[in-house]
């Protein structure tokens, strides 16, 4: 067997620097595409596409003409269907590409403390709140449904936003790093079927947004004064102040550039007792 270096030189024989650059750029684009979809519903579809492509390739290799013709036709139509189905994600991806660098996406420890303090106070007073923290998926289209702001995250400001009778208390607030960028926003509602049918609209809006994006969405229940995190389409358990800080630290505020989003678990934190998040909850509403 030839040594690895000579194997590499044989493989690269005839390659020009331009070809290497070409391959590196394609690898970079694929990696960036992966970063955009990981943590969103698109990742499951991506897996489905890979299985589909695998079967198609096998059909081609094995010369199964009818199957390969059929899959080829479905693939062409499926491509258009995907564009329609994932229009929000595609828009978000383009928005991300066009986003100017150097904008304040950094999140400091002070912001974390202020956010957690505001959540605790809102929960103590049973004031309902809904806060989405942007990570890789831009939340611009949801921010556009509310009132645009540009304010530093501070506990008094967040409390004032959600105070009863405050003009922007209805709807969700969006944070980008240490900035509050919008309030009074409309988030996409989880359909309220299956596990989450017993929840009210605030919680279902949190779950819905976390299903479509990789945002970390915090909810304070007006009814129970509980604090929870919705992530990747699932609602986590009730948290106390230190658990909330711990979760925020690991999900969002570890690094100033929000890089830890890459380490996001596929599902929200498990119940403290190790029970699954879904189904472990007492009904949030009397309608259960
Ligand atoms: N699609 C949405 N996007 C953002 N906020 C929403 C949305 N739908 C409802 N809300 C917010 O949720 C509030 C209603 O909460 P509701 O009582 O129905 O929910 P809940 O999940 O039972 O929460 P709580 O435990 O706080 O009562 C609305 O006043 C509004 O502020």
Structural class: alpha+beta
Order of helices and strands: HHHHHHEHEHEEHEEEH
The share of residues in helices is: 40-55%
- Shape category: elongated
Here the CATH topology of the largest domain equals YojJ-like (1
Distance between the termini: 67 Å
> Strand content of the residues, in percent?
5-15%
Q: If helices are DSSP runs of H or I spanning 4 or more residues, what is the number of helices?
A: 10
Rg result: 23 Å
> Can you tell me the residue ranges where pLDDT is under 50 for at least 5 consecutive residues?
101-106, 255-267, 269-288
The CATH architecture term of the largest domain is: 3-Layer(aba) Sandwich
Total count of domains: 2
CATH class of the largest domain: Alpha Beta
Overview of the molecule:
The protein has 288 residues and is of the alpha+beta class. It folds into 2 domains: 4-98, no CATH class; 106-256, 3-Layer(aba) Sandwich (YojJ-like (1), CATH 3.40.1700.10. Helix content is 47%, strand content 12%. It contains 10 helices and 7 strands. It has helices at 4-11, 17-37, 42-61, 65-85, 87-98, 109-124, 140-143, 155-162, 201-212, 241-253; strands at 129-133, 147-152, 172-176, 179-185, 216-220, 227-231, 234-235. The longest helix has 21 residues, at 17-37. The protein is elongated, with a radius of gyration of 23 Å. The protein starts with a helix and ends in a 35-residue tail after the last helix. Adenosine-5'-triphosphate binds at residues 128, 130, 170-172, 186-187, 189, 199-203, 205, 221-223, 284-285. Belongs to the adenylate cyclase family. DacA/CdaA subfamily. Keywords: ATP-binding, Cell membrane, Membrane, Nucleotide-binding, Nucleotidyltransferase, Transferase, Transmembrane, Transmembrane helix. Residues 256-288 are annotated as: Disordered.
């Amino acid at each position: 067997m030839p040594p690895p270096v000579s194997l590499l030189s044989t493989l690269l024989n005839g390659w020009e620097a331009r070809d290497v650059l070409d391959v590196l750029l394609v690898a970079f684009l694929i990696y960036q595409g992966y970063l955009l979809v990981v943590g969103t519903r698109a990742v499951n579809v991506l897996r489905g596409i890979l299985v589909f492509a695998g079967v198609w390739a096998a059909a081609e290799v094995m010369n199964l003409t009818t199957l390969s013709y059929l899959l080829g036709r479905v693939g062409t139509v499926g491509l258009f269907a995907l564009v329609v189905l994932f229009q929000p994600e595609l828009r978000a991806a383009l928005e991300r590409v066009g986003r100017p660098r150097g904008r304040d996406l950094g999140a400091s420890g002070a912001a974390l403390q202020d956010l957690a303090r505001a959540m605790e106070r809102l929960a103590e007073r049973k004031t309902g709140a809904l806060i989405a923290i942007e990570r890789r998926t831009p939340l611009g289209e949801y921010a556009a449904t509310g009132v645009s702001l540009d304010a530093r995250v501070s506990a008094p400001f967040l409390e004032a936003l959600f105070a009863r009778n405050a003009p922007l208390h209805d709807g969700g607030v969006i944070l980008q790093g240490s900035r509050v960028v919008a309030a009074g926003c409309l988030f996409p509602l989880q359909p309220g079927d299956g596990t989450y049918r017993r929840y009210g609209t605030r919680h279902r809006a949190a779950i819905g947004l976390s299903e479509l994006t990789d945002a970390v969405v915090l909810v304070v229940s007006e009814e129970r004064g509980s604090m929870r995190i919705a992530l990747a389409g699932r609602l986590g358990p009730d948290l106390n102040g230190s658990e909330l800080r711990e979760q925020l630290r690991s999900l969002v505020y570890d690094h100033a550039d929000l890089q830890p989003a890459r380490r996001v678990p596929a599902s929200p934190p498990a119940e403290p007792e190790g029970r699954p998040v879904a189904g472990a909850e007492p009904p949030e509403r009397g309608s259960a």
